Amino acid sequence: MVRGRYLEGNTQLGEVLSIRKQVIGEELGMPQAAAECPEDMLSVHAVAFDDANRVVAIGSMHYEGEGFTISRVAVLPEYRKQYYGDFILKMLIDRAALANATEIYARVICEAAQFMETVGFSVEGVAQIEEGREILTMKISADRLGCHACQSK
Questions:
Q1: Burial 86-114 (b: 16+ CB within 10 A, else e)
Q2: How many C-beta neighbours within 10 Å does residue 45 have?
Q3: N or C: which end of the chain has fewer CB within 10 A?
Q4: What per-residue string of b and e applies to 62-84 under the rule 16 or more CB within 10 Å gives b?
Q5: What are φ and ψ of residue 48, in 5° steps?
Q6: Could you tell me the maximum CA-CA distance found in the chain, to the nearest angstrom?
Q7: 67-75 and 55-64 as β-strands: parallel, antiparallel, unpaired?
Q8: What is the tens place of the pLDDT at every residue in 78-123?
Q9: How many Å separate Cα 30 from the centre of its chain?
């Protein structure tokens, strides 16, 4: 059974940073994006565990003046295509929806855009280059979230 947990701020981030380093830093070649960053102090982090209670997927979200932004979603290679990324993304979306978010943004590598579109995100603007990778900003509006918190508005 998949199990998840939220972490607040920059406490207990050892496992989060470890997966960031392995997936974002080493695999994607983006060491600056993998490092602990100032937003971590103001972020909520979603962590997914496998049956053996091992952290296998992570993601972060912070509030920026216009809405919530999801970033640094990463799943260990051997756990991909098992819905852990989907689970993390939905955990973060649910948390934003409970805070009455009207829009949620996501910053993703271009290769993840199709996955994000399956959840309802759409591309906003043009890709930006960060550490040699194209990064897209994507957005989903509250009316597309399909959660009880949003439908009661």
A1: bbbbbbbbbbbbeeebebbbbbbbeebbe
A2: 25
A3: N
A4: beeeebbbbbbbbbbeebeeeeb
A5: -110, 140
A6: 43
A7: antiparallel
A8: 999 999 999 999 999 999 999 888 899 999 999 999 999 998 999 9
A9: 16
